[in-house]
């Protein structure tokens, strides 16, 4: 077995790191072990060890996702309702 001498550093959101560490702990491994496994599988398959593709959604879902991005970016004002009843009445009217 080759001696491990190389150091790999990476920045990631703290919550994401904590969650993935817990996930791997539940699977019986550490984060470095999981990363080494990812690297090994990448070398074995000659690329990513999983299929990477853009998900396809129907037109209505794509439009809703774009609206959410626009609201988050402040390009569009989000609708607000004074009650759940008001929301459901508008939905029923559509």
The total count of helices amounts to: 4
Apparent shape: elongated
Mean pLDDT: 92
**Mind describing the biggest β-sheet?**
none
Instruction: Compute the number of strand runs.
Output: 0
Low-confidence stretches: none
Structure in words:
The longest helix is centred in the middle third of the chain and has 15 residues, at 31-45. The chain contains four helices and no strands. The chain is elongated and about 70 Å long. It has 94 residues and is an all-alpha fold.
Question: Can I get a quick summary?
Answer:
The protein is mostly helical. The chain has four helices and no strands.
Essential attributes:
about 90 residues; mainly alpha
Give the SSE layout.
Layout: H1 14-26, H2 31-45, H3 59-72, H4 84-93
